[in-house]
Structure formats: structure tokens, C-alpha cells
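Comment on the following before class.
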Amino acid sequence: MSRPPRLFALGAIVLALILGRVAAPALIGDALVSASLRSPALLSLPLLGDIVVDRLGDRISAPAGSDTTLVTVEIAAGSSSSEIAAQLYEAGLIGDETGFIVAVSRAGLEGGLQAGLFQVAASMTPSEIAVALTQPYREPAIAVQLRAGLRLEQIVAQIGTLDLPFTQRELLDLLRAPSAKILADYDWLDLPAGSTLEGRLGAGTFNVPVSATAERFVRMLLDRFAEEIPVELRGSAPDGRSFHQVLTMASIVEREAALDEERPRMAGVYAYRLQQGIGLFADPTIIWVADSAALRNLKLEKWKSYEFWTFPEQPYTGLVPPRVPKDLVPWNTFVRGGLPPTPICSPSRASIEAALAPDMSRKEAYFVLIPGTNGRHDFSQTLAEHEAKARKYGWK
């Protein structure tokens, strides 16, 4: 007795749903679409979701264009679907923001889009782009290994041995004359007018993307330096020396010292000599002058085979041969007093810390390398003591 009314009721419900599916767009129009954008869960309901899809038509499925060129886009962490849609629309990668948002939801990817770099094309459908945004793009990179103590020309020489996307010349020009934008972005550089980036380049392994420019690589070097040398070490010394002067002393210590525990004492020797008005007589500065002169007569592509930091033959010690350009003389601490005008390499944190706080407690003015000790030195207070040790170790 109850079956016919039940069948009638069920039929009425089905008929209402069918009629609603047909009539809803005309009755509620874009209101239902707007509601689903505010509450994406509505799109998961079979009837309402289908109505929205029908209302939007090919706005959900049509690509923005026919260009198949892959474009790299960077999605910031925390971006919502609507923010991502706006970014893609502005880049010409989707043709309709609402269609993309609905496509994301219908694909079950609401909340699943990732941050990072992605490669998509205007020829991809919104759903294809949505799926692509769940898999961050890992751009191929070339590993570049740089150690502390390299002068900038050594870095350029090493780049000549690798298949990087920029030239040695592009890199050298930027290291020697950084752009105004770089100078503005890295206000801690403390560069005197006309100075290069020598002394301010980080060390370690750099994974350089295959699309990187010379400027991007330089920024990677500067960023690494800032990571290695925290802000509290990137300022003036307690005795008033500028960061530039600290780096200059640290660069000499870097080339002289092999053992971290000797760096403060070695910096103390140089600081004491400066305090007493004695020339630094630092061997690395002579080598720097000789290398600089030689590089000027060597084609850039030949730098990769040049042997840097080899002690030159006499009469470099104490003299400047005629073949050395006069503009390099200020770096020769055997004939000029005080610090050189600029650093001679990029020092490590240990050398910078030593230059900031040199140990002058012993009033030592000399040191000599002890052969067969892996870089250990013997320090002296007087010239007579120093010369005696030099004879002892076979240096005289």
C-alpha cells in the first residue's frame, strides 16, 4: 500500500534535480559560481559542481594560447589559489582566473599547489597547469667549488674550465665594476670609490643554475659571504679601522696562515708593525703584484692554466722590477708602508675574526715558516731573533 507513494516521491525528487540542473544557470547565474569560489567545498557536491562547470564552459578547460614555450614561474610560499591564478593570468599563462580556480578544485588539488619554481606553457590546460604546480621544477645546475683565499681573477679563471651560461669577461667586468643595483642591495660592502668586489666573495660549493647570468652568480657569491660572515663581523674594528681595512689585513693573513690558531697572532704581527710604523713586508703582496702584472699580458682564456700565488723570482723581494706597472706599486708592502689599498683575496671567517681582534700581546714583529710542520710558524720580537730562526730553518 505504501510503495506507490514512495515511488512517486522518489520520482519527484529525481525530476526536481533534473529540472534544477537545467534551470539553475538561468535562475541563479553567476551567483552560484561566486559562492563556489568563496566555498570551494561546494564544487565537490555532484549537482552544484556540475552546474558551475556547465556555467563556466570552456573557461575551465581552454588553454590561454597555442605557445608551447615553457615559462619558469616562481610561486611564493603561502600563496592562495586566487593569488596564483592572478599571477598566472598576468603572465599570460591562463585565460581565465575563475576557470583556473575551479579547475584546481575539480582536480582535487585545492590546498595542494606548492611554492617554488615551475615550468608551464600557455598551451597547457588549466588542469594541466594545476598538476604542474604540485611538482616544483628543479632546474639543472652546475656545481662550482671555490675555497677561501682565492683572488677574484682566480675565480674567473676557474669559471673558464666550466660550461656555465655566462662568459669569463661578463663575470670579470662585474666583479671589477659592480653595478649600482648590486651596490645598493649590499650596503655592507664598504667599497671605496672605484674598488672591486675583491675580499667580499664567499667560498664553498655553489649550484649554479644553467640559466644563471653573471650578475646572479655574483649575487650568489655575495650572499654566501654574508652567510659566512654575520653582520656583527661586517663592521669597523674596535680600534676604528674600517671594514675595508679589516678585510685587507684579513686577506694577507689568509694567504700567510695555514692554521686557524695562528691567525690572531699573525694578524697581531701586522697590527703591531703598523702601530710601530714598520712596513708590513708581507710576501703575499709581492706575489699579488707579480700575478697582476702577468695577467695583464695573458689572454683571458689562458688564465685557467696560469699558476697563481707562486713566489716570483728575484729581484721582487724589496724591489719593483721595471716590468711591473707603476699603478701596482701601492700593493707591494716591501716598498710602501701601511696596508695595501685593497684586499688581495677573499678571506675566511677565521682570518676576518683575527683581523678584527689581532693578538699583539707579545709585541711580535716577525714570523718564519717552520719546514715540515704543515704550515706552522715561529714568531719573533726582534729582527736579530728572526734572522737567526731563518738560518735555523734553512731559509738563509
Q: What stands out?
A: Confidence is low (pLDDT under 50) at residues 7-19, 21-29. The two ends are 123 Å apart (CA to CA). Residues 1 and 7 are 11 Å apart (CA to CA). The first strand starts at residue 71 and ends at 75.
